[in-house]
Amino acid sequence: MLPMKWDGHTHTKFCYHGNDAEEELYVDRAIELGFQRYSITEHPPLPASWVPDEKLMGELAMPSEELPLYMDYAKSIKQKYEGRIDIGIGLELDYLHGNLSFTEAIVDRYQKELEDVVYSVHYLQGKGGMRCIDFTADDFADNLLSYYGSMEKVVDEYYNHVELAIEFASKLPMRKRIGHINLIEKFWMKLPPIDEAQIKNRLTAILPKLQQGGVGIDVNTAGLRVATCGKPYVPEWFMAACTARGIQLVYGSDSHRPDHVGFGYDYFEANSQSK
């Protein structure tokens, strides 16, 4: 028996690398597909010049002045759909290595309103500063692979950050889960091979940390939409291991357009078991 049908990772018109569609189109699609809960989890602002590419910086997250507008927007959608679908007001927070105070300030400001946090690792130290691990394969090769010298070292640094993210998330009072835990594999078809045994070892070591911290997993299917990935960002064996430990699995379409809502839910359905 599956838990409530819930899309726990979605975006809005406040996403500068997404779509300008109004939220009603997303939520109406969720209702049409039989979802009972729909979490709105937009990217909040980032620290100024967080990545060295200013053009990219403008596409990654909303400017600071828009965060209150986004929160009001999410609250208005929650009120509008009350009684039809449970809307979760949330954010996809970034693990900001060396600048956790920036995230703490956002959480402190909106702690009473925030119901959902997807906590993700998108950035690693690289050539010239912090680099986005999921921008393009060429950017990854030029600014991360060249910096660390091997895929093994990049992968290890990524999971080091995931472990630190779990530690931070465990202290959050609202529903929380780690976003697309295997995002490091987004460009695996175009980069040097990643050792699957290394990934399995790192994910296995993460399981007790998730369990002890009460942190869930975003079963993110967006990788299926990516030509260089072709698979969900959470493997089947890891889902089974999470279920065995009572770690919450929450489906996430990572929708950036209304037609993304519900994408890949069949994968989640086929590999999820309620305890």
UniProtKB/TrEMBL annotation:
Q: Which UniProt keywords apply?
A: Amino-acid biosynthesis, Histidine biosynthesis, Hydrolase
* CC per GO annotation: cytoplasm
EC?
3.1.3.15
Q: Cite the InterPro entries for this sequence.
A: Histidinol_P_phosphatase_HisJ, PHP_dom, Pol/histidinol_Pase-like
Pathway-wise, it operates in: Amino-acid biosynthesis; L-histidine biosynthesis; L-histidine from 5-phospho-alpha-D-ribose 1-diphosphate: step 8/9
Q: Name one GO biological process term.
A: L-histidine biosynthetic process
GO molecular-function annotation terms?
Answer: histidinol-phosphatase activity
Q: Does the keyword Amino-acid biosynthesis apply?
A: yes
UniProt catalytic activity:
L-histidinol phosphate + H2O = L-histidinol + phosphate
User: Is the keyword Hydrolase assigned to this protein?
Assistant: yes
User: Which stretches are transmembrane?
Assistant: none
All copies of the PHP domain together span 7-222
Give the first-level EC class, as a single word.
hydrolase
Q: Which domain of life is it from?
A: Bacteria
Q: Which family does it belong to?
A: Belongs to the PHP hydrolase family. HisK subfamily.
UniProt name for this protein: Histidinol-phosphatase
Query: According to the entry, what is the taxonomic lineage of the organism?
Result: Bacteria, Bacillati, Bacillota, Bacilli, Bacillales
